[in-house]
């Protein structure tokens, strides 16, 4: 097999650069061109210190055809720089549609990872696991999200335990069923918000084989904590430190995160 997301990421520093592009925050008459140049320079300058680059699909989709084209170019550029890619698209649908979502992401970009929503159940996630195994990829299942409203459903009592821990039980079983080459890790990871440190600790113990994508650094107030298999992700605070594109400030911020995550 060629590229392998799990092996690559497990061997890299634990910081993920989130790319949530906002053309309105870029100067000049051609903000999209400025954005693309900035994203390329930023990925290049931070590459050695990153686990992966996470592209938030919503921000590209919101730009229409130009956004899709930009996404394709940036994903390709990340691969040229040797950076593993996470498609943050939070897909989830009945099996036949899940297959198409998997073709559009995991199969199209071998060695990449995709975020998925478990609400439709196991049969709806199976196509993603199969595509990840066939393409050297990985899947991150939403388990406990970083937003305050995650409590509305994810914390509901489900037979004496919060629902997110029930989801974690299933994720643990899927993780066993879909091992990766890089022991002990699996192709089935979890999304766990860094804004919930207690849940993060509980889930780390419950999911020993899953890499965690941990959003919430910076803008959402999560405190960086080192830990095995924790891939901490920052978007606004790293891509737009101080609320604007700024390569030097982004380098400083990445360095500060790296120091904090090294323990
Ligand atoms: O629970 C979740 C899952 C995904 N996200 C995504 O991560 C980034 C966070 O952006 P920041 O600017 O670093 O706050 C964004 O793309 C979200 O869609 C999340 O925040 N929480």
TrEMBL record:
UniProt-annotated catalytic positions: 90 (proton donor)
Lyase is among the record's keywords: yes
Keywords carried by this UniProt record: Decarboxylase, Lyase, Pyrimidine biosynthesis
Catalysis performed (reactions): orotidine 5'-phosphate + H(+) = UMP + CO2
Positions of the Orotidine 5'-phosphate decarboxylase domain: 14-251
Gene3D superfamilies on file: Aldolase class I
Pathway(s) the chain acts in: Pyrimidine metabolism; UMP biosynthesis via de novo pathway; UMP from orotate: step 2/2
EC number: 4.1.1.23
Enzymatic class: lyase
Record keyword Lyase present: yes
An individual GO BP term: 'de novo' pyrimidine nucleobase biosynthetic process
GO MF entries: orotidine-5'-phosphate decarboxylase activity
Family under the similarity heading: Belongs to the OMP decarboxylase family. Type 2 subfamily.
NCBIfam families: pyrF_sub2 (TIGR02127)
Record-given protein name: Orotidine 5'-phosphate decarboxylase
Naturally occurring in which organism (per UniProt): Oceanithermus profundus (strain DSM 14977 / NBRC 100410 / VKM B-2274 / 506)
